[in-house]
Protein: histidine kinase
Organism: Nocardioides euryhalodurans
Amino acid sequence: MHKTVSMSENGRRWAGPAAVAVALLGVYVAGTSAVLFRPEGSDVAFWWPAAGISVALVALVPRRHVLPVVLGIFAVSLAANLSGGQTADLSLAYSIANAAEALVAGMLLKGPDGRLVTLGHLSDFVRLVVAAVVGALVVGVLGALAAYALDDGSLPTTLRNIFTSHMAATMVIVPVAMTWRQRTSEAPRLEFAIQVLWLAAVTCALFIPVHSYPLSFALLPILVWAGLRLSPRAVTIELLVTCLVAILLTGQGRGPFGDTGPAGAISLELAAPLVQGFILAGALVVLPLTMAVTQRRLALEVLTERERLFRRNFTESMTGMLLLSLRGDRLEIVDANETALQLLDDGRTRVVGRYLDRVLSGPSTLRSVVREMVGGDLDGWRGQVSVPHRPTSHVKIAISPLTRGADATFSAQLLDVSAEYAALARTAAAERLTSATLDTTHCIILVCDMDGTVVRANRATSTLTGFHEDEVLGRPVWESIIPPHRVPIVRSMFSSPDGSAIPGSREADVQTAAGDVLRIVWNTDLVRDEDGTPRYAVMTGIDVTTERTTAGLMNTLFQAGMSTAIIGMDGRGRITLFNSGAQALLGWTTEQVRGRQFTDLLDPTEMAERTADAHGSGWSALTSTIGEERESQVDDWTWLTAGGSRRTVSMTLSGGGSEFGPQAGYLVVGRDVTEQRHSQMMLMAALEKERTASERLRQLDAAKNEFVSTVSHELRTPVTSIVGYTELLADGSPVEPDPQQVPLLDTIARNGHRLISLCNDLLTLAGLDSDGPAWNRAPIDVRDLVTQAEDSLRPMVRDRHLKLSFVVPEQPVVVVGDAIQLERVLLNLLSNALKFTPDGGLVTTSLEVRDGEAWLLVVDTGIGIPHEEQEGLFQKFFRASTAQDLAIQGTGLGLSIVAGILAVHGGRIGVESAPGEGTTFTVRLPLQDG
């Protein structure tokens, strides 16, 4: 056993291995004592208390621990028999019999849940008797056969002695375990003390003297007293103690069953069965009586508690309750709770003692209802009555018979529903008011449940749509007024139970019964219950068909293709209308300028000059130019476009509104006259600029071609030859070089390679400056470029104390471009990072995808670049001051080549740096479509 096990529903718990060990020790001590003190000449013990302890132990432990416990009982019984001087073969046989008895009887005493049953019912006592009989038979048969076979014992005598001793032990000891957690005594302490002392005195008087008087029955009345007044636990303990005293003293030759000497009245063979029979008789008499008394007491307690609960429910009920008694064919009130008294009491006459039909005004058939219930034709009656002194009251009543016959009794429950009726009346009045309000409103009002079914529609709905009320109510809203093309949209609005898909406001089409289409502006609100759950959607629709048609015509007119700019403003000069001519002229959209001041579109310098002498704001000065004809003179103004350019516009400002009221708005009509005013000057300037630019481009192109030709034929070819011959000399092909010449040859080769690299850079720049280099374009996984760059650069830092880090994603990052040129971009950036990062630094290359672009970041912890010099990094031959101060070699072409390659690929490069804090270059390339 490895944990504490709960043993019964009343809280009995077995303490675990320690308790099992103590119990097994008790089995050993009891068994040894029984063997040692058995009467001389007897093959079996006078009494075997170890049997009761063993059965109780098996019954207490969980089923999974039964087998180990049974084996322990076998071992302990074997040790006890051997210790008591029993022969080995008999000890073994008796131990097997004892273990079998414990197993069989203990399992019979377990309930369905595997726990020891309690002596709470007579069925438990029957189970105890059956377990004791079966267990005693098992051990008696096995023990008698063993004694007969191994020790020439008398088979009937041995069977009788073992059966009675073991059954008695089980009937006395096991009940103590079954009732251990129950209360000790039910009687007062004084009575309990007197009963215990009396029992002790009578027991001692009967079993201490040596006599053969048949007075053992004198104990039974005292034990019966215990059964009537004490708890089952106290009774089982007293029975056990009494039996122990009787067994011990009888074994010493005392008491009415102990006179077994040569001249005694009782033989040795009869003494044991007699005392065991005495024990069994006491157990069979006292234990059932105790259980019967206990059950009766518990039943009385339950009945008392139920009566108290009923009375409390009756008196404290929030529902009016009456107890009624039959008087002829009328019901008399014999009791009423406080709620009923408050409902029925008129302040003048007592309610109790009056007839029910006097305190309640109900149907005239109330007496016939009573007769039907008395006769058994009606089990109960429900109805509605009123209280006479409260004419507007409404009371629901339910009458049920409790007993029938001449003295029949009834119960009546009263529920005052007057407040509910009053609330219903108020609700009906409010409903009529709401209906009148809705029917006089000239807009569509629909109330739908959360499934979209229309539960209410006002009169205007039928007037505007032509659908009769019956064609709308009780049907989904999309089956009547919704056009077919909008049915899926409206269905989806009611697809969410919480109403989250229903918009608060919207504008949509409605189809009339005649097939016409109305334009409706809808506003929707949700009606929620007390829990906040939406129950209904109230939709209010205003017909704006005429307004939208007129507005559409006006909008078509204003948005028609024209070169004239028309701008409308409110009284404060804020733009409200911006036609297509104004959009084409200024480059602004209506949404961009709506709500802005019109003066923001004018040149501020010109505005300040022309309104300097006016008082107030610029807008006030501008409107002051409007004459009596409600229109200003035509004048030229400089307007600002969205791109910041200036346009000369000939415009007029006119006011709108009635002649008796303030200006409701203003209208500006403008025409772009920039071309007319400056066409000749602009044409001449354009021709001169074009000629100058063409000549400049021709000169630059010629210079570039000449320079590239020079680099290709006059510089690169001889430098390549020099490098080649230098490598031959260094390899020792013609002749082995002198060791002092090797460094010189290396210097020549290194500088030659630098010149070749410079030539390549210049040629690349020349190609980038052309109309477009002929590069191969194909899908490229940028991760491969990073891997190739890593392989190329690792050897370069082998002799340096630099850390290189390359981070690429798991998924491909595909762009379209020339792999060689893009690899050159990465190598140039990484070479610069290695060049300008001192030992002990870190260079990190990471690739990621952001916003549909491939982001390649090269981060170093090097010397950094001053912020004011970063704008020139990508210009040809530019070198930062930090590189020049540290005398770091370079041509200043690498980053300009990088920028040029990225431009051809549609990419961008950015830089973030600060002196001493390192540099971050960010390359952004568009990803491949799809």
About this structure: The longest strand covers residues 390-403. The longest helix spans residues 674-731. The chain is about 50% helix and 20% strand.
